């Protein structure tokens, strides 16, 4: 999906765009004059995920006029020199202050209390900022029993887990490699169909687009003159091979005109001229394998029609060949591996989740004396109890069941989420037990410490803390 933002679903996740974008416009500057005054400049834009208005102020002297203009243009916003982000009704503000990322303040206009909890989560979890609620949200964000609504999640559907779809080959195509000549494909962001086929012919892109928010986004800057390399038969053949590989992967669900409901998301395979020009340098670095993309998840090649995401971050039946192509593309732009030495891993908020360090539970979070697990932030779809020291759960298919998972209760995407106050080992309404596969989970030892990890949905944690079992 979009290589500049590997966030999962929900409008709140788009907050990461403002402070953690991998686009060149958001890359940190090498030098900072800490004493320089910061002129008041704001940008009003429509959040590409939630489709709601937002406003950002560039509160860091590293924001030059050129970088501000580029950032606001990328967001398709209106630049307002000398004008603050002020609204008669607002949900709150988010101050994003992250090392090596330029400071930004976001303001969220609105008068719907149902959006408060998701807005806070988006700020603190995904944008890694400090949320200051308005009077409207000061009490609403503390409502642990409030069920998420379409307004709170930006209108995006609940994450739909992958399914393995088996379909008859298209007319004129060869029989598939699966039983009965069928073509079997995982309907997942990291899935791929058989080489030489088009992914959207054999799996549901609609399901894929629930697994990471789709949104239209402008491509990289256009080339000033036609790319003469297209006249080189060897280059043209290699470019066609790369396109065929992308066509067979779920990447095509957001990166082709025919499959993108409101337009492609940044780069796209049918861009005019050389479609490589639609990539930002950071996207090429993902293909080159020069920036870590582990957090995005991957299937083993033997389960994914021979496609792997190892040497290159783009799924391929020949990852080394794919990586070489993108490395050569970056060399054509004058970029080297060292150019990305400080580029953070791909995945934005979901990458940050993998390195999150939990602290002790506070307030009523954790295990109560009555044996019930409680959390704050709203209703949940996934409830983990992990051994202390267990890696943080990540995205399916290979990061969501870390070794050390003692108990995992979850509800299907078609069911309602459940409220805080679940007894360990007792399934809440509509929930199923995924770990252990059968039987009751192992008992919690008095005096031992465990890790409570609760998610509103895949990629959207609401409580992550350590609790100690009363003796």
Describe the structure in brief.
By secondary structure, the protein is α+β, with helices and mostly antiparallel strands.
What is Rg? 23 Å
Report the average pLDDT across residues.
86
Helix content: 10-25%
% residues in beta strands: 15-25%
User: Would you identify the regions where 5 or more consecutive residues have pLDDT less than 50?
Assistant: 1-37, 142-155
Question: How does the overall form come out from the CA principal axes?
Answer: globular
Structural class: alpha+beta
Main sheet overview: 6 strands, antiparallel
How many runs of DSSP E, i.e. beta strands? Answer: 17
- Structure annotation, total helices: 9
Question: Looking across the biggest beta sheet, what order are the strands in?
Answer: 3-1-2-5-4-6
> Roughly how many Å apart are the termini?
48 Å
Please trace the helix and strand order, writing H or E for each element: HEEHEEEHEHEEHHHHHEEEEEEEEE
The tally of domains stands at: 3
Fold and architecture overview:
The longest helix is centred in the middle third of the chain and has 15 residues. The protein contains nine helices and 17 strands. It is 17% helix and 19% strand. The chain starts with 15 loop residues before the first helix and ends with a strand. The N terminus is likely disordered. The chain has three domains: 130 residues, no CATH class; 177 residues, no CATH class; 113 residues, no CATH class. β4 and β5 form a beta hairpin. With 471 residues, it is an alpha+beta fold. The protein has a six-stranded antiparallel beta sheet with strand order 3-1-2-5-4-6. A six-stranded mixed beta sheet has the order 9-17-16-12-13-15. A three-stranded antiparallel beta sheet has the order 10-11-14, with no helix packed on it. α7 packs antiparallel against α8.
């Amino acid at each position: 999906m979009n290589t500049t933002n590997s966030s999962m679903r929900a409008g709140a996740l788009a907050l990461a765009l403002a402070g953690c974008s991998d686009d060149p416009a958001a890359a940190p500057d090498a030098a900072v004059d800490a004493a320089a005054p910061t002129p008041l400049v704001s940008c009003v834009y429509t959040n590409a995920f939630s489709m709601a208005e937002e406003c950002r102020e560039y509160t860091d002297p590293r924001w030059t006029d050129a970088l501000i203009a580029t950032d606001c243009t990328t967001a398709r916003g209106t630049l307002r020199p000398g004008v603050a982000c002020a609204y008669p009704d607002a949900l709150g503000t988010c101050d994003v202050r992250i090392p090596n990322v330029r400071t930004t303040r976001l303001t969220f206009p609105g008068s719907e209390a149902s959006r408060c909890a998701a807005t806070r989560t988006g700020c603190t979890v995904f944008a890694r900022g400090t949320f200051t609620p308005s009077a409207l949200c000061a009490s609403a964000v503390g409502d642990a029993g409030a069920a998420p609504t379409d307004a709170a999640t930006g209108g995006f559907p609940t994450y739909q887990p992958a399914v393995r779809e088996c379909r008859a080959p298209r007319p004129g195509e060869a029989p598939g490699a699966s039983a009965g000549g069928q073509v079997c494909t995982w309907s997942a962001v990291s899935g791929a169909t058989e080489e030489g086929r088009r992914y959207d012919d054999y799996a549901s892109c609609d399901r894929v687009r629930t697994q990471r928010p789709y949104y239209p986004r402008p491509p990289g800057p256009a080339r000033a003159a036609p790319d003469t390399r297209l006249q080189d038969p060897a280059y043209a053949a290699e470019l066609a091979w790369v396109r065929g590989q992308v066509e067979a992967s779920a990447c095509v669900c957001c990166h082709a005109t025919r499959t993108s409901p409101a337009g492609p998301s940044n780069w796209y395979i049918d861009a005019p001229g050389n479609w490589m020009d639609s990539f930002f340098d950071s996207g090429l670095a993902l293909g080159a394998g020069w920036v870590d993309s582990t957090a995005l998840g991957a299937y083993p090649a033997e389960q994914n029609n021979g496609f792997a995401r190892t040497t290159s971050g783009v799924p391929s039946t020949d990852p080394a060949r794919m990586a070489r192509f993108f490395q050569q593309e970056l060399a054509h732009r004058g970029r080297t591996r060292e150019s990305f030495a400080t580029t953070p891993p791909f995945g934005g908020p979901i990458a940050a989740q993998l390195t999150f360090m939990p602290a002790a539970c506070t307030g009523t979070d954790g295990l109560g004396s009555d044996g019930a697990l409680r959390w704050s932030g709203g209703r949940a779809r996934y409830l983990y109890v992990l051994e202390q020291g267990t890696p943080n759960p990540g995205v399916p298919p290979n990061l969501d069941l870390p070794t050390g998972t003692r108990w995992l209760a979850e509800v299907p995407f078609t069911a309602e989420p459940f409220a805080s106050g679940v007894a360990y080992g007792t399934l809440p309404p509509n929930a199923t037990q995924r770990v252990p596969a059968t039987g009751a989970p192992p008992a919690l030892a008095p005096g031992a410490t465990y890790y409570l990890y609760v998610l509103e949905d895949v990629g959207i944690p609401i409580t992550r803390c350590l609790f100690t079992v009363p003796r």
